[in-house]
Amino acid sequence: MDLKDLYRDVILDHNKRPRNFGRLEPPAFSARGHNPLCGDQLTVYAVMDGDVVSDVRFDGSGCAISVASASMMTEAVKGRTRAEAEHLYAAIHDLLTRADAPSPPELGKLAALGGVREFPARVKCASLCWHTLQAALQGAAVPVTTE
Amino acid sequence: MSAAAPLAPPLDVERLRADFPILRQKVNGRPLVYLDNGASSQRPLAVIDAERNYAETMHANVHRGVHTLSQRATDAFEAARERVRHFINARSVREVVFTKGTTESINLVAHSFLRPRVQPGDEVLISWLEHHANIVPWQMACEATGAVLKVTPIDRRGELDLDAFQSLLSDRTRLVAMTHVSNALGTVLPVRQIVALAHARGVPVLLDGAQAVPHFALDMQALDCDFYAFSGHKLYGPDGIGVLYGRERLLDAMPPWQGGGDMILSVSFSGTTYNQLPFKFEAGTPHMSGAVGLAAAIDYVDAVGLERIAAWERTLLEYATERLTAIEGLTIIGTARDKASLVSFVLDGVHPHDIGTILDQAGVAIRTGHHCAMPAIEFFGVPATARASFAFYNTRDEVDRLVAAVTAARDMFR
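^ inputs. structure came back:
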């Protein structure tokens, strides 16, 4: 294991300068996610235009992996349909947890999260924002937690 | 293996390290530097051997059989209780209750002491520094009874505000429950003053000693607290065993909190007579090998010498504080004048969780997060800290390895 596999340049960059950072007021959907182990707290906001995620933002605080993952997620899902976002979520889940997972081309930049797989204690950091986005899109009222 | 032979001061740390097999390994290709002793300390061979010897030569159920092994197990278990009594200078073994650990000890007091005694509006007084184990049991008891939880504030150093404590003590205060040493910040609380002030108002005091027992010699009679809770696994002993010290007069008046075997004298369907102290609070088969291992840990610690342990840990704390402070962008959280040997810190631009991973890759084990003391951490406006907690088997070289790894983490995130 090499730390550079985990903290790739693209991850360090998104941690330092998170994209789409900030809040969106209702009627945007939102949900809060919490990782009690490390104290990461994220809120993900999404605006739907019909079936398309027309805007998505996040705020909160967390480790580099959770912030970078959320930042890259917002770039990846903006402009996609709900079904496409769900499909990306499934692909990311595989990437983070399955050693033999293919890295489909639609992942794009998100493939940089592949190194997280070698650090099992950090998988929840990378997946928190995706769980939270899903909750937001489902209009869930209860905060999600990785525990 | 027997307990470590007495050494002339100062500690021969290298020789003592040889007593701890787990320290001899590499983690991620580097010799392990174990600095998470505040979460759980490691066990010397003397403890491992004592538990094994118990299992190989004397295990049976205690307080039950007439056969030889049961007698041996009972003798070993009760000898362990006497060893604990002597270690903390309790008046009697009737004041030494074996539990699963500090958390269970506190829950026992919340359930059997506090709940039957409080009316709506009565108060329990804790501090901002508490571990969740010394918050949540009281919250639950308050919720069930209508009592109110009061919290003594701290200052920016992480020291208890004694004046505020004094003014929060009221005619409604039924119990003071405070930590002896803060697990998140290292603050040593002025427990003698706390006990004296509370007793002057007729209020009993429980102390959470989980973080104190590995560092100081304890004397229940001198301390004069009413309850004291601690765990074996932070005292170089086994996990799953802990102690509740309680003043006999109070324990005697408390109802049992769990029912079962061992805590009764006789049972019939018309009623049950409870056993005497301390068995009244030990329903079911206890953790016998754990108690034997805890006694071995106490023998070991006594042989090394708590005063010399404290002196070496003070040296490590001063050295680590000085070297970490010199790292640009690093802030130490918790700067009490009287501190146990741990350093909680944050680093500009690097989340504690990332520090933890980077240090682990360098073979350095620390704790990151809120340390089960969320109010204490949030008081300082941070969501989490990194915490290095030192034991007597740690060295200055290991502090250097910590500092090098933290510096590397900072550089990686520049």
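Chain B touches chain A through 17 residues (CB under 8 Å). DSSP finds 14 helices and 17 strands in chain B.
thumbs up if we can close this ticket
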